[in-house]
Structure formats: structure tokens, C-alpha cells
Specification:
Structural class: alpha/beta
Number of strands: 38
Largest sheet: 18 strands, mixed
Strand content: 25-35%
Shape: elongated
Length: 650
């Protein structure tokens, strides 16, 4: 339980008062009752108020009066418990409560203390602390010798040492001379921040000083604050004479710290923490962008602290300054909480500190190429790249991506539009995926996926392009040569195919992503079917063996069980895949889009035209033509321009 310093001080005062007033005597008798009666007479109190300790148990002899007597040490109950018991009850403590002062050592040997009071010489033995050693009789005799105490009861001294309860017990008398009591003086120094006490050694017959007397002396000499109660108690138990002892210390004032701002993001990007990938450092992952989302806490204010006043030992108050308050500096797209202690992002984007203010930018601009200097880019907004995206790097954005130069063998992934002012040179490994439209000058040897339209000005060469709406090539050199292009609604270009007859596959009238998944599921279905055939053959072989041998060997039986388990799993997977295949086929057949493929100038032989589930291959060159689906056949008609405006949007 927690005990306040004030309570400790009060307890110590009451304990000291009790020690001063407490009386203890030795008593004896043929029986315990006689010994208590003797103690009652000496103390002048009823037997029921006596607290006693048996020092020697009596023993009856063979003849009357030849036995051993009972010996006790008796205390006055009222004096011993006066005030202290009440205090302990207030604290909820029991009689074994021991004060643990913060400055006390955890380990301390037991010690013997002897002091002269006006009514006699008293002695106590403090118990050891922690792993300290107990005080011995030899130590007690040495202390008594040093104090020049004689005429004491040796047996009583021995008992006090063994008991070691920290209570003073009168052991002898002496001729008290109050004129020779010690004289004290106090020095207040260090601008009244320290007080030193000097005690002159008492003369012949003088008593030792006590803590309460010291404290009263200090108070009478204006020392009222920061008095070290433990030091006073030590001076009572083990006086230090003719030396300055620090007994009180003031407290210096402490100014409060100013308010500060704790940022929840990295503000210094001069030091880069590289990450390991597969045991190797990835120098492309520089993590230079601090992405945040709307509603995210960006910074927190630590309030200014109140100053803590100081005090001199004479009780003077020393003022202190409180810390200065500040406001969190916020800029664009950042707001403060109602209490002004938290900065919150209003949008998704990049958090940066500009001119000391916290801003969230919806656009991240790369002034040059995306390369080892920039690393890969991941941004929760729009990315604008003034240069190229070099081979091996990736740019991913929750908004749009705009590239002023070319895109190499890289990865571009945006939830919005992707705009490439020059071209995409994928080298058969580059991948571009967008959640809306893709605009580019040309696409070459790349894999492209667009949720809406793919708009190209010069042409698409040997690439895989999927669009959930239209693929449009508009321009003087707008040709589609080689590769596989799939669009839900329309493919429209100036020229389709080439004179060299490069295989060019053009598919429209369905959802290309669903169609691709359908192809994957059909391949998986075929693989599972082959696995089932193999399992059936092995199971049949073992079953035939079982008919001949009546009973299979343990290993064969185990293998047979494993085959049946695999068959059950394979059948389950086949049913799941078959169900997905049927769902996709139903979806594709329900689409009302028929789609069309158009060329404003020429379609070269070798181009494969696929309208929904009808396929035809161009065998002779066609000019200015549009392919449409009529029933179950593909019909050619006069060229139909693409409807709508497909110019690059800024």
C-alpha cells in the first residue's frame, strides 16, 4: 500500500514519543503470576495492561524454594501503544509494519545504539536488513565501553541484543547534569539552499540529543523546509560531534518544458533504410514517400509543462516559469482536432513538411527518371514523372500515373488513368495495368490491362492488350501488328496486321478477363481429369490384386486408402472448377455486346478476327472495312469510325 511522507513523519514522531515515554523493568517470581504481580507493583499499573517477555522459565525443585524462578521483562501497554497503534490502524498496518525509507540501504548489519537520557542510560539493538549480519553481544559491550557506561545489567544487555527489536530499554542510571547537555549551532549557506548542523559533545553528566529536540532547534532558527528526518534519527542513534552535518536541503525551481510536436511520420529522408529481400538488399526500395490516408493522425502535440516552484530551507518560495505553448503548424489538406492537439490528414496522399508546416499532397512529382535515385514508387495519390521509367522499376499509384518520357521493362499499376506521352517498350516483360484508361504514343512488346479504354496514337506492336471497353489506335501510323488484343466492345485502327503476315489475333464481344479465367479453368479441368484417370487405373489394379489374394498386405492397403482419399479430393476440385466454368459461360453468353473490329485503311492477310464465339481468318487484303457479327457469321461492311472523343485527357 502507498504511504505518504507526511504519514511516515507522523509515525516516526509517535514512535519516538512512545520510545521516550515507554518504561521497561525486570521482574521475577516462583511462578509467572508472581513475576507479573512483581512487575505490576514496580510499574504501578494493573497486570492486564502489562506487556511482557519471558526471559527465563521457572522450574519447580524437589524441595520447597529449591526451583528456578521465572524472569520477565515487562512494559506498560498504554505507553508502548500510545498513538502508534491508532496510526497503524489508520494505515491498515499490523504490528510488524516496518518503515522503508527511500534512502535506506537494502542491506545493513544490525547495530547497537546507546544514549543518555535525563532519566537514565538506554540501549537498543536494531535488526539487520536484507542479508546484513545481526549485532552481537561483543559489539554491545564495545559500544558501552566507548560510551563509558558501567553498572549495567549484563543479562539484560544480552537479552536486548538477542531480541533486536529496535526499542530502547533502560539498562543503567547515571548522575544527570543538564548544564552539560550538548550545544547546537546551525549554518544556512548556498543562498539558503542548505543547512548544516554542528553538535558540541556533551560534558560530564550531559545527555545525548534526540531528533525532536534537533528539529525544534532547526525550526527556531528558521530552518523549516527540506529537513532530512532520517539524518536526524541517525544523529539521535549515533551522534556526530563537532562536525558540520547537512540536515536540510532546499529544492531548486524547475522551469516547465515548452510544448512540442511529435510527428507520426519520417521527416528526415537524408538517411535511407534499405530493406532485404530474399537475403539481399533491394536498392530499388528507397521508401522516400510517406503515404497517408484520409483521417490518419499525422502529429500530436505534447502540452507545455507547468513550472515547479522551489523552496529554500528557510521556507522562501522560488518562482518557476511554465513552458511556452505552441500550435501544430498545418498546411494544405491537413486539419486540427477539436482540441487542437492532433493534426489529421483530410485526403489520401503524401505527407511532407514545407516551410515548417505539415502538408498532404495528392500528387507526387518525380522531376527526372524513375531509377536508382528514386527507387520504386508507391503512392496513395497521383504520380507525375517528368522523365522515363527505366527497366526493372515499378510505379504504383492509387490515383493516376503520368509519364513524360518512355516506360521500359517496368511495372505500372494505377487505380485511375495511365498517361505515357512517349511509348511503352516492354521487352516482353513490361506490365501496365490501370483502373480506367490507358493513353500512350505506342505499345511494343508489353502486357497491358485496362478496365476501360486503351488509346494509342502510333500503334501496338507484338503485345498482349486487354480492355473492358475499347482499343483505339488513331494517328497517321496507327497500326496493330502482331500479338493478341482483346476488347469487350471494339478494336479500331488504321491498319491491322502487316505485309509480312505477322500473326495478329483480335477478339471482341466478351469480357477478356472472364474469358482468360475461363481458359485457365478449362486447363485446370483437363489436368484434374487426367489425374482422375491415373487414380482410377491404380485403384483398379489394386482391386484386382485384392480379388486374387483375398487380403492385401499392410503397405498395399495403406496405398489403396491414400489413392481413394486423393480421388475424393480430385472429384471435389473437379466439381468446383466445373461449376465456375459453367458460371462464366453463362455470364459470357448473356452479354448483349456483339462488338466490332474496324480498319480505316487496310487489313492484311493472316489477321484472325474473333467476334464472341465466331472466328474467321483474313485471307486476302481488305480495305476500309468493319467486321460485325450477324447470327453465327462474321459480316464485312463499310468502315465505321469509332464513336466518341478519345483524345488524351490532361
Amino acid at each position: 500500500m502507498a504511504v505518504t511522507l507526511a504519514q511516515v513523519r507522523r509515525f516516526m514522531k509517535l514512535q519516538l514519543d512512545a520510545d521516550k515515554q515507554g518504561k521497561s523493568i525486570s521482574a521475577s517470581g516462583a511462578t509467572l503470576e508472581e513475576a507479573l504481580h512483581d512487575a505490576s507493583i514496580q510499574l504501578g499499573i494493573p497486570v492486564k495492561k502489562i506487556i511482557y517477555e519471558v526471559i527465563q522459565k521457572g522450574k519447580e525443585g524437589l524441595f520447597k524454594g529449591s526451583g528456578t524462578q521465572w524472569k520477565i521483562i515487562a512494559y506498560t501497554q498504554a505507553e508502548k501503544g500510545k498513538g502508534v497503534d491508532i496510526f497503524e490502524e489508520d494505515l491498515g498496518l499490523d504490528g510488524d509494519f516496518e518503515l522503508g525509507l527511500p534512502s535506506a540501504s537494502k542491506n545493513r548489519d544490525g547495530r547497537v545504539c546507546v544514549r543518555r537520557q535525563s532519566d537514565g542510560i538506554y540501549m537498543k539493538t536494531d535488526p539487520p536488513k536484507g542479508i546484513g549480519k545481526r549485532a552481537t553481544k561483543e559489539q554491545a559491550v564495545l559500544v558501552l565501553s566507548q560510551k563509558r557506561v558501567d553498572g549495567y545489567d549484563d543479562g539484560l544487555v544480552d537479552r536486548i541484543v538477542k531480541r533486536a527489536d529496535g526499542n530502547y530499554v533502560k539498562i543503567a542510571s547515571y548522575n544527570y547534569n543538564p548544564a552539560n547537555d550538548p550545544v547546537m549551532s546551525v549554518s544556512v549557506v548556498d543562498i539558503e539552499m542548505k543547512a548544516y548542523l554542528m553538535i558540541q559533545q556533551p560534558g560530564q553528566g550531559g545527555s545525548d540529543i534526540d531528533a525532536e529536540t534537533i528539529k525544534a532547534f532547526l525550526n527556531n532558527n528558521r530552518v523549516v523546509f527540506g529537513i532530512n528526518e532520517e539524518t536526524l534519527q541517525d544523529l539521535e542513534d549515533n551522534p556526530v560531534y563537532n562536525e558540520d552535518v547537512l540536515v536540510a536541503s532546499g529544492v531548486k525551481p524547475r522551469n516547465g518544458n515548452d510544448a512540442s510536436v511529435v510527428y507520426n511520420f519520417k521527416t528526415d529522408h537524408s538517411v535511407i533504410d534499405f530493406k532485404e529481400k530474399n537475403g539481399k538488399v533491394d536498392f530499388k526500395e528507397l521508401n522516400l514517400i510517406e503515404n497517408v490516408v484520409a483521417g490518419q493522425q499525422l502529429a500530436k502535440k505534447v502540452p507545455a509543462e507547468q513550472g515547479q516552484m522551489g523552496h529554500t530551507v528557510t521556507g522562501k518560495t522560488l518562482p518557476a516559469k511554465s513552458g511556452k505553448d505552441i500550435n501544430i503548424p498545418v498546411g494544405k489538406n491537413v486539419k486540427l482536432s477539436e482540441d487542437g492537439t492532433t493534426a489529421i490528414s483530410e485526403i489520401n496522399g503524401q505527407v511532407i513538411v514545407i516551410s515548417g508546416k505539415i502538408n498532404v499532397e495528392p500528387v507526387y512529382t518525380v522531376a527526372s527518371d524513375v531509377n536508382l535515385h528514386t527507387g520504386n514508387i508507391l503512392f496513395l495519390g497521383t504520380v507525375i514523372i517528368k522523365g522515363n521509367v527505366e527497366d526493372g522499376f515499378s510505379v504504383k499509384a492509387a490515383g493516376n500515373i503520368e509519364v513524360s518520357g518512355n516506360v521500359g521493362k517496368a511495372i505500372l499499376d494505377a487505380e485511375g488513368d495511365i498517361i505515357v506521352h512517349q511509348g511503352i517498350l516492354g521487352k516482353n516483360e513490361g506490365k501496365v495495368k490501370c483502373g480506367r484508361n490507358l493513353y500512350a504514343k505506342f505499345i511494343e512488346h508489353a502486357h497491358v490491362e485496362a478496365e476501360e479504354n486503351v488509346i494509342v496514337s502510333d500503334g501496338i506492336l507484338h503485345s498482349m492488350v486487354d480492355s473492358n471497353k475499347k482499343i483505339i489506335c488513331q494517328g497517321r501510323r496507327a497500326s496493330i501488328v502482331g500479338g493478341q488484343l482483346r476488347a469487350a466492345e471494339e478494336i479500331n485502327a488504321k491498319n491491322l496486321g502487316s505485309v509480312a503476315g505477322a500473326e495478329t489475333i483480335l477478339e471482341v464481344g466478351y469480357d477478356p478477363q472472364r474469358k482468360q479465367k475461363l481458359v485457365f479453368l478449362q486447363q485446370k479441368h483437363d489436368e484434374l481429369s487426367k489425374e482422375m484417370e491415373e487414380l482410377d487405373r491404380n485403384i483398379t489394379t489394386i482391386e484386382n490384386l485384392k480379388k486374387v489374394q483375398k487380403q492385401l498386405p499392410e503397405e498395399k492397403q495403406k496405398y489403396y486408402d491414400e489413392l481413394n482419399e486423393k480421388k475424393i479430393k480430385a472429384l471435389t476440385q473437379i466439381n468446383i472448377v466445373q461449376k465456375e466454368i459453367e458460371e462464366i459461360k453463362t455470364y459470357l453468353s448473356s452479354l448483349k455486346i456483339k462488338g466490332k473490329i474496324s480498319a480505316s485503311e487496310r487489313v492484311f492477310p493472316g489477321v484472325k478476327i474473333c467476334l464472341r464465339d465466331v472466328t474467321d481468318k483474313v485471307r486476302v487484303e481488305q480495305k476500309s472495312v468493319t467486321y460485325l457479327l450477324e447470327g453465327k457469321r462474321i459480316r464485312m461492311t463499310k468502315y465505321e469510325p469509332a464513336e466518341g472523343d478519345y483524345q488524351r485527357r490532361r
